[in-house]
Amino acid sequence: MLLIFYKPGVRYYESQRIKAGAHLFFNAFWMIPNFCINQMYMRDPMHQIDSGVIISFLKAVLRKFRECVELPLGIAGAAAKKLTMRLRRLLGKEKLASGHVMHGAHACLVPVNYATTNVFQQLEDKKKAARNTRSCDYRHLMLLLPFILSNLFREEVEEHNSTHPGAAVVDPSEQLINVTNVFLRWYKLYRQTTPGKTAADITLLRSLSLRYVSIICIVFIKVFISIMNFMTLITLI
Q1: Higher pLDDT, residue 199 or 23
Q2: Which of these, 105, 148, 179, 195, could form a disulfide with 92 (CB 3.0-4.6 Å)?
Q3: Comparing C-alpha atoms, which of 85, 87, 134 is closest to residue 108?
Q4: DSSP string computed for 71-87
Q5: How many CB atoms lie within 10 A of CB 180?
């Protein structure tokens, strides 16, 4: 018996699959007794969190600043520029009395490279992450985020409120720092492998998850409303 194996096109495969009432390609996992795909899932923190949730979180941060500060003050894109500037100070140079130029004038224990400092500007301009930014770069950026967010628009907001008392603007930096700290506490426990998690750790992890979800629903309420409206529109279409 001659067997000819080929890779059919998507349309052909789908039409023939419907006729047969099953998938045409054999999966070796089906030979394993009591095999259940749902029990075989593996955690993938790098793609799920580092290159997924964190990127969405950073986009939400920029949008929060856009809604609360940039639009009322007419300074579009200012948040990305200020955050980028603060990050690049870590890579700045310092000239010593001896004439030597030292790199990393404000270096810290968290590794920072050019790709890390350019994340916010990339998300602002391109609306998507750069390919040369690694997952570990996003983790490092989250560790720095509470510090670079501190009073990001304090001076601009104070100046605006002093001249427009009837249209006060609030700098959301403090709110965003609180959300970031909750996420970091959750993420550190989530990635913990040694020592293994205890029953108390699991309870705390669940509690932090609920707290994180509840707090982002409050801080990013307009963002979520826009997303839900968009998803509703797609469903209607």
Answers
A1: 199
A2: 105
A3: 87
A4: HHHT-TTHHHHHHHHHH
A5: 19
